[in-house]
Design brief:
344 residues; alpha/beta; Rossmann fold; 7-stranded parallel sheet; 3-stranded mixed sheet; 14 strands; globular; binds NADPH dihydro-nicotinamide-adenine-dinucleotide phosphate
């Protein structure tokens, strides 16, 4: 891919993988970060192979009024920047405003550049469902339940994605919009910081879950998410939204995988609280958790999760890694950064 590409939120977990792959493909990249001089957040990018000649980091904050207009002389934009935290003090200020304003700022800036031919937005399965109910989720589904008080991170993602599609309809710009909707993204990280999705694995191995509860997740490997963004840029016929996740997997299976890969000595939960009584107890206990985590537990525990990933497999040719591989690789990486004990 020889295009020039703007990647927002360049220092992030997903964006770092995208940039590494784009550099390997010889693309020229402009990456936005809040502070290019913050070496702690940018060193891993600037030391990537090819970065010296092909990567420029520039400053952009989603809360500024026009953060991106100076950087849109590019062919493709990948807008990944958005706050990814479950618990915040002020959901409107800390989650919704940067997510929505950042997305609209990016699209508005893109519309001013004749060169941009496609914008790829990193949305989320959080924009597809707030409370899975066993129905087969597809790209046609929308989360209509989240609010500032109920799964506010989910709310920020659904509002940002809706704002993007509304913009496309209203402004009819010269570029098209492709949206990637990943589930919980895990896998090797370029930095020591613990992504919100990895916190689940860290908590599980470090004994913060006193019991196995009836939670089911849809994981996706960060390397596959990066491939999906790049395929969305390269494949002319790509269109619309893409559910981006491999398979569902429940907590007891994740514990089994951790045990089988050398973490049997760690503080993995042993007791099972997976029946209806356990689920009722978990919901009660959720009120003792930080607000975002508590809300997540109440809307997800005891809920069957099903989704259809055939569109992304067929149209973007994504051949997902198995959850076993991604969980193993994520755990090995978390141990490397000393977030969990070393495997034995
Ligand atoms: P990270 O937290 O690693 O990355 C988020 C990026 O957004 C960071 O680079 C962060 O910059 C940037 N950002 C946040 N707030 C602002 C702001 N006000 N101004 C400028 N930049 C900002 O998370 P991920 O890589 O996991 O997430 C990337 C995208 O993927 C997000 O849109 C997220 O919602 C989405 N996503 C993630 C999933 C996951 O499981 N990881 C699942 C589904 C979707 P800084 O480093 O300065 O904080």
């Amino acid at each position: 891919m020889a295009d020039k590409i703007l990647v927002s939120g360049a220092s992030g977990f997903i964006a770092s993988h995208i940039i590494e792959k784009l550099l390997a493909a010889g693309s020229e990249i402009v990456g936005t970060v809040r502070d290019p001089a913050n070496y702690e957040k940018t060193a891993h990018l600037m030391t990537m192979k090819g970065a010296e000649t092909h990567l420029t980091l520039v400053a952009a904050d989603l809360n500024d009024s026009d953060p991106f207009s100076d950087y849109v002389d590019v062919d493709i934009i990948m807008h990944t920047a958005s706050p990814y935290v479950l618990t915040v003090k002020n959901a409107q200020r800390d989650l919704v405003a940067p997510a929505v304003n950042g997305t609209l700022s990016m699209l508005t800036a893109a519309a001013k550049s004749k060169r941009v031919r496609r914008v790829i937005l990193t949305s989320s399965m959080a924009a597809v469902t707030d409370e899975p109910d066993g129905r087969l989720l597809t790209e046609a589904d929308w989360n209509n339940e989240s609010s500032l008080t109920r799964n506010p991170y989910f709310y920020s993602k659904v509002l940002a994605e809706r704002a993007a599609w509304d913009f496309m309809k209203r402004e009819n710009p010269h570029f098209d919009l492709i949206v990637i909707n990943p589930f919980l993204v895990i896998g090797p990280a370029h930095t020591a910081s613990i992504n919100t999705s990895h916190q689940i694995l860290v908590d599980l191995v470090n004994g913060n879950f006193p019991a196995i509860i009836d939670l089911t997740w849809g994981f996706v490997d960060v390397r596959d998410v990066a491939d999906a963004h790049i395929a969305a840029a390269n494949i002319q016929a790509a269109s619309g939204r893409y559910v981006c996740a491999t398979a569902t997997i429940d907590m007891s299976k994740v514990v089994d995988i951790a045990r089988a890969n050398g973490w049997g000595h760690a503080k993995l939960p042993k007791m099972s609280l997976t029946g209806p009584l356990g689920t009722a107890l978990t919901k009660l206990a959720s009120y003792t958790q930080p607000s975002g985590a508590g809300s997540y537990l109440r809307t997800h525990v005891g809920r069957a999760l099903r989704f259809d990933n055939s569109k992304i497999r067929n149209e973007l040719a994504i051949n997902f890694r198995s959850p076993e591989t991604s969980i193993r690789d994520a755990l090995v990486d978390l141990a490397k950064w000393n977030h969990i004990p070393q495997p034995r």
